[in-house]
Design a protein that fits this description.
Blueprint (H helix, E strand, L loop, with lengths): L1 E4 L5 E8 L2 H10 L13 E7 L2 E14 L4 E9 L10 E2 L1 H15 L6 E3 L6 H8 L2 E3 L2 E4 L1 H11 L4
Parallel strand pairs: 5-7
Antiparallel strand pairs: 1-2, 1-6, 2-3, 3-4, 4-5, 7-9, 8-9
Helix pairs in contact: 2-4
Length: 157
Amino acid sequence: MKILHKESGETYEAIISEMLPSDYTDVKKSKGFVFNWEAESENKVYKIILKEEESQILGLLSLIDYPEEFRIHVNLVEVSRTNVGKVKKLENIAGCLIAFACTLAFKRGYGGFVSLLPKTKLIDLYQEKYGFRQYGRLLGVEFESSKNLIDKYIGNE
């Protein structure tokens, strides 16, 4: 998957993997993330890093599997402080993490169904940028929308 450098347009290869116990300490010390990620350790938590710079975590993703509902739920997603808003250096971090969740939802036979409960101010962003639709209080993507996210952010990996 590719991460885009905002200014130069250069792309970097990124990797998503499960968080290690030592990663939680590193995240807390880094001050690069707002949320308490240790509280998410009961869920499956993934990190995205650059292949060439493995010590720097760019983003985090906490997932809950609901096999009885045929969906993966994004419990929490966060991009490092240096890569959000107008000052961000790298793009596509959140998109890669969400697309990764979609790939898991296809692999588990859920038709790519991924849900999340967004903050009110982020609803439009999730709908416009990532193709999420309203499902009661939750937003979700499935089938074609999930495939589009995978194609855009992960490609043929």
